[in-house]
Amino acid sequence: MTRIRPSAIAFAAILVFGVASLAQAQKDTTHPYTGAVTGTITALDATTITVKGPDDDGGSFALNGDTQVMNDAKTIKAADLKKGWSVVVNWDYASVESKSKVAKLIEVTDAP
Fold first, then answer.
1. Within a domain: 15
2. pLDDT digits (tens, 9 = 90+) for 35-47
3. Is 14 among the domain residues?
4. Which of 102, 57, 107 is nearest to 87 (CA)?
């Protein structure tokens, strides 16, 4: 019977895990698919929220049935949000090809 040396087993393990980590590292960083923005609600209707950040960042985000809205530890409805409130909007693109952003989670940080 042939004995496999421990160093051969270690080499094989490093090779397998090294290749697996390289495969995971092939991520497209030229087009981020998710993001977050902190700012003030400047416009709001049943399907869209617009947020302006401190550095003129922000934008408009679609609201849908999957959008979760939190105020402190309580879940609230998007209809409960008000212009002027400070929020953090966590968003995803509607699809890989889309420039449309969909709000996934809106967290109220200050409600005057």
1. no
2. 999 999 999 999 9
3. no
4. 107
